[in-house]
Amino acid sequence: MSEPASISEGIAARYATAIFEIAHETNDLDGLEASLTDLAATLDDSAELREVIASPVLSRAEQSAVMMAIADKMGLLPILKNTLGLMSEKRRLFVLPQLITALRAKIAEHRGEVTAEVISAKALTKTQSDKLAKTLAETFGKKITIQANVDETLIGGLIVKVGSKMIDTSIAAKLNSLQNVMKEVG
């Protein structure tokens, strides 16, 4: 892992721990999860917001004003809104994606859930997703939450990541493997 990435994850982990503990003490983990889902969707959909959180040109006050306006409009939990304000003041908004990931992981761990990142060539149907979650739950002995992504370059099959384990049954991976074998022969 690169040094800047580990520093960002360390910063995000400290903020995530504080937010999680406060939300847990106030019995509002469901509200925190809903706010995180909204914030993550907004961050994914808005290139302008991604520019704001990464911009070294904007002043702390400008970043803070933008984040407070967004938090108010979205109705985010006060603890999350206040943390965004603090992160703006400390020039730490660049870790927002890692913060969202860390908070989701803490909530899932608290609930005894494991998140499985599933990458498929086309979107999974509800039935496929449920069947995969059930199979993974039997394998890992925990409740599984599926985080599905689509990557059409896989051609077919799935890539499933659960914790540090990865299962790659994609056609693209099989073709790459075959290509490597052909290189060894020739």
Give the SSE layout.
Elements: H1 3-25, H2 29-45, H3 47-54, H4 60-74, H5 78-89, H6 96-110, E1 113-120, H7 126-140, E2 143-150, E3 158-162, E4 165-168, H8 171-185
Parallel strand pairs: 1-2
Antiparallel strand pairs: 1-3, 3-4
Give the helix level as a range of percent.
55-70%
Round the Cα radius of gyration to an integer and report it. Answer: 20 Å
Please name the fourth-level CATH homologous superfamily of the largest domain: N-terminal domain of the delta subunit of the F1F0-ATP synthase
Mean pLDDT: 92
- Total beta strand runs: 4
Give the N-terminus to C-terminus distance in angstroms. Answer: 35 Å
Percent range for β-strand residues: 5-15%
Largest sheet data: 4 strands, mixed
- The spatial strand order of the largest sheet comes to 2-1-3-4
Q: Which structural class matches the secondary elements? A: alpha+beta
Which architecture name of the largest domain does CATH use?
Orthogonal Bundle
- As residue ranges, the low-confidence spans are none
